[in-house]
Amino acid sequence: MAPCCVYGVTCPDNGFITGMRIFIRQVVRMEIDLFYTDGGASFKDAVARRLGRTFGLEARDRGRMRIYEGAWNERRRQYDAYVLLDHLVRCMKSDTAIWLVDPDIFCENVNFVFGLAMYHIAAVVSVFRLDTPGMVVKETIHEAGHILGLPHCRNHCVMRFSNSYEDALLKPDIPCMACRRKLDRKIVEPGMRM
Ligand SMILES: [Zn+2]
Ligand SMILES: [Zn+2]
Question: 82 alpha carbon to ligand 1 midpoint, in Å?
Answer without folding.
Answer: 14
